[in-house]
Amino acid sequence: MNNSILFSPIIPLPILAVLAALAVLFIGFAIWRKLAGWPLRGLAALVLIGALANPALQQEDREPLTDIVLLVVDESASQKVSDREGQTATALADLTARITARPNTELRTTTVPDAEGDGGTLLMGAVSEALADIPQSRLAGVLLLTDGQVHDVDLAPNIPAPVHTLLTGHKTDWDRRLSVKNAPGFAILGEEVLLTLRVDDQGAVPDGLGKLAELEISVDGGPVQAYNVPIGQDLELPVTLPHGGMNVIQFTVPESEGELTNRNNIAVVQINGVRDRLRVLLVSGEPHPGERTWRNLLKSDSSVDLVHFTILRPPGKQDGVPVTELSLIAFPVRELFLDKINDFDLIIFDRYKRRGLLPSVYMDSVRDYVEQGGALMVAAGPDFASADSIYHTSLADILPAAPTARVLEEGFKPLLSDIGQRHPVTEGLEDFAPPVAEGEDGPGWGRWFRQIELETLSGNTVMTGVGDRPLLVLDRVGEGRVALLASDQAWLWDRGFEGGGPQLELLRRLAHWMMKEPELEEEALWAEARGQVMTIIRRTLGEEVPDVDVTLPDGSTQTVALKQVSPGRYQATFDGPTIGLYRLSDGEKDAVIALGPSAPREFEETIATGDKLLPVVEQMRGGTFALEDGVPSVRNVRSGRPAAGRGWLGVTPREAYLTADVTLIPLLPAWLTLLLAALFTVGAWLREGRR
């Protein structure tokens, strides 16, 4: 029970003050006049003024509230190195027992895991969130159980109580860290890019360790190359990507004896290799509507360097024009087809037939170019079925189908074959077609009206035409690739006939497939990462795929079964337990993928330190304690006094309470006021009347 006197004036306080002043003047006048009853008159005035002040006795029924001590436990990845987990558990148990044993004291504990997206240790964010549920009037202290490596000190809230840091780790800890300071996400094939690496030693580095460290480099999980590099200096490493698509480069510094952790001894860089420019040689026969379409499509792409060789005037044409006026310069045929042919990434024959302009030795050169890794595409017109067909040259050795000399002149819709539904060049091509008209079947693209009948010799028929005859045949020849399109009317799609069709997408895929881009390989295994979860993807032209063996960074292996999600595509998800390089293999295809950041923020600095939290601790006169010296005792300290000493930390008792009931008792009720005022007034009158 707590008692206090309250005043609630009946009239405004200024008026009450004026009345009190008048009463004092009145009593003073009575004293000056030497009236015998002035004391009683004064008491009467005092009773009346007191009644107007309305005094009351307040009685409170209070329930005491416990003091709250907040204990924040750092459970980030850096707290799992060495014996820090054991130190944390021991200190947590000891502090919990000591604080809960204190009278009128409550302990609240919150944990701090790794932040999402490599955000590090957001300790102050956890403190702010916990304080939102604790009244400031009850907060007696905040204890931070951590290694001190936090990443949001600038966001520390205003804490009206002592703050203490209890540090895990040891004074003798040291660590070696490998970091990637600069790494591009893309690089041009054949051109060097510079990666900036750095090896640093931190903490109490042992004497005689040396100034050089061994650096191991591996590309796509291949053979390891080792170099000795200086410690504490930026190292610029020139790298040339071996292939297009994603290149995974792993840098490793072998673990040294006594090192705190090897989690920061590995850095993984993923660089996407892209081609600078695509060099295309377009060889056209007689002019036709599709020729300009081919040229416009190729010229519309700024990454394509196009050389167009075309026959504007056949040799047999007799129109009387002097030969000297037919050309300003001689076309460099020999240079294109012999000397510089290997400079081209793709050669396209568009309705070209033998006219005697390209001797057989040039066709031999094209054949050799393909077998040695080049790419050839043939867009066949009626000439391909004639006696002058380029099939009747050495190109027959590499073409996947032979003409039957029959030309089919009727309308048809190109369709995807069964294997075309799975082949990356045509997979999902219907998604790029216009909407299907109501009442019609098949894809929504328009019809073509001419097809060259072919007899398939090799390769894969991915599109069919009239009567399911081969329309687009793809094949691998030696190190190169060949595509044969048995129609010269793909330009109808580009012109929008009957809604048009996905000609640009089809040609883009064809070009990338012939350029051997990894994402368009028929048989491929790869993975896509999202955080620590990878999606394993297997594409095949077959009907089933084997399980995939996943080799984790620690060398252990897990087997993952894939499920079919679309024709020719199988997938599965795998949750990687740690960051690092993962190797995938199904016995036929291999792949590598890196999970997590190249340099995890949690392991940029691993040596325990209280320096980062010192501004927060000093603000409320707290202290920093190393747990290897023992868990400090807990004492009470008054607010504003030093809250830390040798072997002890202080908390401030708040003595907070909850008011359960309040009772107000008037000290001068109306009847008592009137009675006292009347008695004192009458007494004064009687005393003065006797005189």
How would you characterize the overall build of this protein?
The protein has 691 residues and is of the alpha/beta class. The protein is 19% helix and 34% strand. It has eleven helices and 37 strands. The protein has an eight-stranded mixed β-sheet. Helix 1 runs antiparallel to helix 2 and helix 2 runs antiparallel to helix 11. The radius of gyration is 45 Å and the shape is elongated. The two termini are 52 Å apart. The model has no long low-confidence stretch (mean pLDDT 85).
Indicate the structural class: alpha/beta
* Backbone shape: elongated
The spatial strand order of the largest sheet comes to 16-15-17-18-24-23-22-20
- Determine Rg (CA atoms, Å): 45 Å
| Low-pLDDT runs | none
What helical percentage do the residues reach? 10-25%
**End-to-end C-alpha gap:** 52 Å
Instruction: Count helical runs.
Output: 11
As a percent range, the share of strand residues is 25-35%
DSSP strand tally: 37
Main sheet summary = 8 strands, mixed
Mean pLDDT rating? 85
